[in-house]
Design goal:
This protein is mainly α. It has six helices and two strands; from the N terminus they run H-H-H-H-E-E-H-H. The chain has two domains: about 30 residues; about 110 residues, Winged helix-like DNA-binding domain superfamily/Winged helix DNA-binding domain (Arc Repressor Mutant, subunit A), CATH 1.10.10.10. Strands 1-2 form a two-stranded antiparallel ribbon. The longest helix has 26 residues.
């Protein structure tokens, strides 16, 4: 193994651990709203992308259509999503989030961002600058 490969492997290991630990802590800061992460992910996707068909949602969330059907049934029962006929294809439905789901997502994000901001205040200027510099690289990794 070349020195650059070994260094990349070590960096990958350290980065994976740090990101996993931070992700775990962010999940712990979620409000107790009773929704599983998979259901929250569907709501967040709808919030970001707008109304979608169940098939498109299943593809986006990388789950099988029957699984998405169950998730959407739970979300509809909780008043978190609405279903309307697709104006371009009457055989399809478009799923959108409700105002109560938007509020839930906004509050959840606010709570986690406040927690993270409270930690960032404790960092010195160089540490905050290093994080700011690393953000575009982390975005590239997240999008790949």
């Amino acid at each position: 193994m070349s020195p650059s490969t070994a260094a990349s492997t070590d960096l990958a290991h350290d980065l994976r651990l740090a990101v996993m630990r931070l992700s775990r802590r962010l999940r712990q800061e979620r409000a107790d709203h009773g929704l599983p992460l998979g259901q929250l992910a569907v709501l967040a996707t709808l919030d970001r992308n707008g109304p979608m068909t169940p098939g498109a949602l299943a593809h986006q969330e990388q789950v099988r259509p029957p699984t998405m059907t169950k998730v959407l049934a739970h979300l509809a029962d909780g008043g978190y999503v609405d279903r309307v006929a697709d104006p371009h294809d009457g055989r399809q439905q478009l799923i959108s989030i409700t105002d109560s789901a938007r509020r839930l997502l906004r509050e959840d994000r606010r709570r986690r961002e406040e927690w993270l901001a409270s930690l960032l205040v404790g960092l010195d200027a160089d540490q905050r600058a290093a994080l700011r510099t690393a953000l575009p690289v982390l975005e590239v990794l997240a999008e790949s």
